[in-house]
Design brief:
- The protein is mainly α.
- The protein folds into two domains: 12-499, Up-down Bundle (Amino acid/polyamine transporter I); 511-597 and 605-658, no CATH class.
- The protein is 69% helix and 4% strand.
- It contains 27 helices and four strands.
- It has a four-stranded antiparallel sheet.
- Helix 6 (113-120) packs across helix 7 and helix 8 (146-164) packs across helix 23 (480-506).
- The longest helix has 39 residues, at 34-72.
- The radius of gyration is 28 Å and the shape is elongated.
- InterPro entries: BCCT_CS (IPR018093), BCCT_transptr (IPR000060).
- Belongs to the BCCT transporter (TC 2.A.15) family.
- Pfam families: BCCT.
């Protein structure tokens, strides 16, 4: 009985079981018949690129424009959470986790390979090698710049906003609340989360499989280890996933945060070394040129479809830009949910600026240092030898280090950085999968996170053994088309949610409800200037607030309104008026302590805290202190807030937040 009682789960079975069944079915197809799966899915992927390339181009443009517009508007001041919420992580830790989860491993894999390949085969005519190099960097910046992070940012912002502001589950279904309403808790919501679960599992597993191949190639080149056998690669997967499970077990604040900070430190060290060991002045000049060229041509590149170009250019677009857009979209449920989880308490403007600009600028600096260095070395040092190996991307980074000092040391650091990136992606992926399968439930048991880590490793190992990675990659990219349409719906949902939120923030009590007339001003003055301790505030709540709320509740019940007063274990007292189909009216008061400003003088040792009898409401507004009010004034304040609540019920713009379920 004890073992049964201690076993618990937060899994939502209508999401977990269908998702697991779909994962098993698709995995069996990709591993038992990889050739036919790759042929069928690859053909479908190419057909989608040809027929719906315009849709990807316009949708990604909408994502970027939407985020920039929200950041520049008054909506940017809204917090992701209640108005008094504070960020859980420092700015440095937050940016480090954004960088590591978003595309850190991609920079290691493509930092040298992509600029070099564009340089060798530019889609537009280049008059000379210098023009080809500049075009290569423009295209690389386009694929790794603002558009990629706009895709992640849309999903992350929608999840964080509706999860923390509307108090809905931290899952994709919450983003469709303005469209589906309470139906997000039924089959439609389950279907959306199942889609996100399957897409995330295969997106992460496929990337891990390709990443292990690069890690094996690096170990073979640097240490001379024979890593060509499948057994060695499977061993690498086992080690990486074991470390990921250990990190996931320590939690978000310890494991993922510390690994992300280690990632960022190692990446900065490697970046600085290549900058100083390579053609430093040329790289600094190139970075300025690359930024200017990228931003000046941003609009043209955003909407470019090569409709007036050659068939070769259209094929290039499908094999590069559209492939990137689809890949970022397929990863957006994972990355978006992860950055949403770590962004509670930040304003929408801070979120958008941080997500769009900080990782983008780092990506562009990284691509300049590694990409321009590779092109310069191929021209002036390697005599074309480095470019001749550009097709073998797995080992290209380590061949690049052959032309720099301290080759063995830098290669070893790169291998360590790749490994840590894998662990970070895997453990954050396990946490995100657990959150999706639990529909955002907090404090899930450890075994669930470990289960998802094991499933990711097993999926990557099975695909690598059977040669089904390409088939599954094609299927993952196919799923990006319907999810792009869902993301457009998420943008519409966000706009509606922000409108309703702004209506709530702007609504003011009627002037006639300003109840205080100046009576008992000496008592009020004493209460204003005194600094009560927690016991005094709680005594005020028990002797003044609680009877006042009881009086209001009794009068409401006498008038046919379902009202009740409850008292929490923390001493809070809450008046709740049930409103079927709408968010209940809540007027809560509790003892709230907060540090005094550092510049205030302290007359006693415990005066570093200020205790308030602070109100709380169901719609996320910031509460205020009422410890200086008398019972009659508290009653007047309750009625003032209730009148405001009833007024909002009559306004169509405020209906969305008014009808959201409160907790």
């Amino acid at each position: 009985m004890e073992s049964v009682r201690t076993f618990r789960t937060t899994l939502v079975w209508p999401v977990f079981l269908p998702g697991l069944l779909l994962i098993a079915t698709i995995l069996a197809w990709a591993t038992l018949a990889p050739a036919s799966a790759e042929s069928l899915l690859g053909g479908a992927q190419r057909a989608i690129s040809q027929q719906f390339g315009w849709f990807y181009i316009l949708a990604v443009a909408v994502f970027l424009i939407s985020l920039l517009g929200i950041a520049a508007s008054r909506y940017g001041d809204i917090k992701l959470g209640p108005d008094d919420a504070q960020p859980a992580f420092s700015m440095t830790s937050w940016l480090a986790m954004l960088f590591a989860a978003g595309m850190g491993i991609g920079l290691m894999y493509f930092g040298v390979g992509e600029p070099l390949q564009h340089y060798l085969s530019p889609p537009l005519a280049a008059a000379n090698p210098q023009a080809a190099a500049q075009q290569a960097m423009n295209l690389t910046f386009h694929h790794w710049g603002l558009h990629a992070w706009a895709i992640y940012g849309v999903v992350g912002l929608v999840l964080a906003y509706f999860g923390f502001r509307y108090q809905l589950p931290l899952s994709l279904r919450a983003g469709l609340y303005p469209i589906l309403g309470e139906r997000i808790h039924g089959p439609w919501g389950h279907a959306v989360d199942v889609f996100a679960l399957v897409s995330t599992v295969f997106g992460i597993a496929t990337t891990l499989g390709y990443g292990v191949m690069q890690l094996a190639a690096g170990l073979q080149q640097v240490a001379g280890i024979d890593s060509s056998g499948i057994g060695f690669k499977l061993g690498l997967i086992a080690v990486v996933m074991g470390l990921a499970g250990l990190s996931a077990a320590t939690g978000l604040d310890k494991g993922v945060r510390r690994l992300s900070e280690l990632n960022l430190s190692l990446a900065l060290a490697l970046l600085l070394f290549v900058l100083l060991a390579g053609p430093t002045v040329y790289l600094l000049l190139a970075f300025s040129d690359n930024l200017g060229s990228y931003f000046s041509g941003l609009v043209a590149m955003t909407f470019r479809t090569f409709s007036y170009g050659t068939q070769a250019q259209q094929d290039w677009l499908g094999g590069w830009t559209l492939l990137y857009w689809a890949w970022w979209v397929s990863w957006s449920p994972f990355v978006g949910l992860f950055i949403a989880r770590i962004s509670r308490g930040r304003t929408i403007r801070e979120f958008i600026v941080g997500v769009l600009l900080a990782p983008t600028l780092f990506n562009l600096l990284w691509m300049t240092v590694f990409g321009n260095s590779a092109i310069w070395l191929d021209l002036h040092v390697a005599g074309g030898a480095l470019g001749a190996t550009a097709a073998n991307v797995d080992s290209l980074l380590f061949r690049f280090f052959d032309y720099l000092p301290l080759t063995q040391l830098t290669s070893a650091v790169a291998i360590l950085l790749i490994a840590v990136f894998f662990v970070t992606s895997a453990d954050s992926g396990a946490m995100v999968l657990d959150s999706i399968a639990s529909v955002g439930a907090a404090h899930s048991p450890l075994w669930q996170r470990l289960f998802w880590a094991v499933l990711l490793g097993a999926t990557a190992a099975a695909l690598l053994s059977a040669g089904g990675l390409k088939a599954l990659q094609a299927m993952t990219l196919l799923s990006a088309l319907p999810f792009t349409a869902i993301m457009l719906l998420l943008c519409y949902s966000l706009w509606r949610g922000l409108q309703s939120d702004q209506c709530h923030q702007a609504q003011q009590p009627a002037p006639a409800t300003q109840f205080w007339s100046g009576h008992h001003w000496q008592q009020r003055l004493r209460q204003l200037v005194q600094r009560p301790d927690a016991a005094n505030v709680q005594h005020f709540i028990d002797t003044e607030v609680s009877p006042a709320l009881d009086t209001v509740a009794a009068e409401l019940r006498d008038n046919g309104v379902a009202a009740q007063v409850s008292r929490g274990a923390d001493g809070a007292v809450t008046l709740r008026i049930d409103q079927p189909g709408q968010r209940d009216f809540v007027y809560s008061v509790q003892c709230h302590g907060k540090p005094l400003p550092a510049f205030l003088p302290a007359s006693r040792s415990d005066a570093d805290m200020q205790y308030l009898a602070q109100t709380g409401f169901a719609d996320g507004r910031e509460g205020y202190d009422i410890r200086y009010l008398r019972q009659s004034e508290i009653i007047a304040d309750v009625l003032k807030q209730y009148e405001r609540y009833l007024s909002l019920q009559l306004q169509q713009r405020g209906q969305l937040l008014s009808s959201a379920p409160g907790h």
